[in-house]
Specification:
about 90 residues, mainly beta, two-stranded antiparallel sheet, about 40% strand
Length: about 90
């Protein structure tokens, strides 16, 4: 498994939920995912590290359909590597 550096986060995309009201196109990018691993944090200019507010197990929303995040595959499972700034919202904490 990847061990992210600095303010990087490894996220496993969650499948889109089917809705009776919305039509979801199959080729759209996933925008929700479960945090799998979190880096130690961003380095500060004056030294030190600012820890991230995320923990493994958190469910987050990220990006847009037009943004492509680096993809990492391991044993047939796809993961995305994001920065803290790419996270839009934490939906639930573990």
């Amino acid at each position: 498994m990847l061990r992210p550096l600095r303010d990087r986060i490894v996220v496993k995309p969650l499948p889109r939920e089917k809705s009776a009201r919305l039509i979801v196109v199959d080729n759209e990018n996933e925008q929700r995912g479960e945090v799998i691993a979190v880096g130690p944090g961003a380095r500060l200019k004056r030294g030190g590290v600012r820890a991230l507010d995320l923990q493994p197990g958190d469910v987050v929303r990220f990006g847009c359909d037009y943004l492509n995040f680096p993809e990492y595959r391991e044993t047939g499972v796809s993961y995305r590597v994001l920065q803290e700034a790419d996270i839009a919202r934490v939906e639930s904490a573990a």
